[in-house]
């Protein structure tokens, strides 16, 4: 019976609510120590300044990582028009300021409808974990290399839903449902450019991965390896 319980706990996946400033690898490393897991990995990176749902796969369930990564993702957050940063979030300092006098909510919705829904193409942010020439893009960026100097490959993504509202313009609250491989910071950057202005990401939370929701996730502080999620038999 003890062996059966150990097997059940070791070969599972866990829904974790990643806190701000932690990297996804920080979470994996912490849980590996807490659970004394031999084999562990995460199914989809979250930036340090993003919080929300992170799926941690353990033991035999690491074979399910590709499956989890393939599921659609849902994010909520806040973007701000009129300013930019090199990282497109608050990891780096503001570098440019733009006019927003010509921007209306109707214009934002029009741009989203025409250019940021359905199948889109995007260039990942230079402050991202993609490898280029053997180094992470953020390593190039921190060494002073600009995005124009790097040949970052264009990526394809599908945006199923991009809804906005605002009560404190130029801050825009949003909810985005998208495919695997979507860079929300790229969407924010591109929206600013399409509006002949600029934009940065102030807040980002991943609320869902497929049907798995952050409100069912454990915090790292309260992590208990016996509170596991289970896959269906199908």
Automatic annotation (TrEMBL):
CDD domains listed in its UniProt record: PseudoU_synth_EcTruB
GO molecular function, one term: tRNA pseudouridine(55) synthase activity
Catalytic residue positions: 47 (nucleophile)
Domain of life (superkingdom): Bacteria
Catalytic reactions of this protein: uridine(55) in tRNA = pseudouridine(55) in tRNA
Pfam family, one: TruB_N
The keyword tRNA processing appears for this protein: yes
Residue ranges that the Swiss-Prot or TrEMBL entry lists as coiled coil: none
Alphabetic keyword roster: Isomerase, tRNA processing
Residues annotated as domain Pseudouridine synthase II N-terminal: 33-184
EC number annotated for this UniProt entry: 5.4.99.25
Assigned protein family: Belongs to the pseudouridine synthase TruB family. Type 1 subfamily.
Function: Responsible for synthesis of pseudouridine from uracil-55 in the psi GC loop of transfer RNAs.
Name listed for the protein in its UniProt record: tRNA pseudouridine synthase B
Source species of the chain: Aquirufa regiilacus
Source taxonomy: Bacteria, Pseudomonadati, Bacteroidota, Cytophagia, Cytophagales
Gene name of this polypeptide: truB
